[in-house]
Fold this sequence. Notes:
By secondary structure, the chain is of the alpha/beta class. Helices cover 43% and strands 11% of the residues. It is built from 12 helices and 9 strands. It has helices spanning 6-20, 41-50, 66-76, 95-103, 117-120, 127-132, 153-163, 174-187, 206-215, 237-247, 266-279, 284-298, and strands spanning 24-29, 55-59, 80-81, 83-85, 108-110, 166-168, 192-194, 219-223, 252-255. The strands form 2 sheets. The chain has a 6-stranded parallel sheet with strand order 4-5-6-7-8-9. The chain starts with 5 loop residues before the first helix and ends with a helix.
Amino acid sequence: MFGKNAGQDRKREKQARDLLRGAVDFHIHSAPDVYPRILDDIEIARRAKRAGMAGVVLKSHLTITADRAQIAGRMVGLPVFGGVALNWQVGGLNPWAVECAAKLGACQVWMPTIHAANSLKHLNRLPVFAKSMPMGVKGISIFRKDGGCVPELEPVLAGIAEQGMILGTGHLSPEEGLALIAEAKKAGIKKIVVTHPMARFVRYSLEQMRDALSRGASYLEFVLNDCSPRVGEPIPLEEFAAAIRAIGPARIILATDSGQVDNPPPVQMMAEYVGRLLELGLPARAIRTMTATNPARILDL
């Protein structure tokens, strides 16, 4: 699976499996969902526990996942976290959705994802969403026409700050994401994660990633789905590894963004790509930092 030398392959495969112990997959899409998913909440948690992982975060583009995450966690005996993405199904930039999610134990609030104005501009890169997107759906932006932030943003950020939740930038453009981080810091939000900045439909430059961190983002979330053949233009893993080296593992969370039926199941996907990153020369300690230390820290595990 990892190369031509069978002995090295087995060693690397074992090392990849060992690195799953204590890891947290910070970004998984699970069933039940409107979109096809490979596993349900409970089976994802079971497989993660079997692999020795320390926890998982369940994400939906359409509904709050905090309540069902609690059920899966209790069923399996593993920390399972959920949150809410501020798409139209929950009212967009809706402070009541934030409040409800918080009361249900949400760990993270994502800015709009599939309904972000930036995301709708790139539907050609997101065929699954393009097929099911209603005609005429209005994209959500945090910017007014004059370049300032929309008034709806302020109470949303206030709610996230009050509850001590993580703010994820969702599918906002890099320009919106950078402005959001500045506003979030003003609002008193302490935990900010830039959601898959390597994704083709978001695509921060290295300079913008560094800018995000300098403005107060806690971590950049690098997701392995961006390198998967299932996406229209997968990022070469060599480019992915180069970005990790350029930024440094101390400020990166490595997650899968898996759960799609045409990707491997989350645990398998994490193991396969960790093995390939090892093959590209990334040190095991760097991978451990990104898959275990950093997500555990922001989740207070």
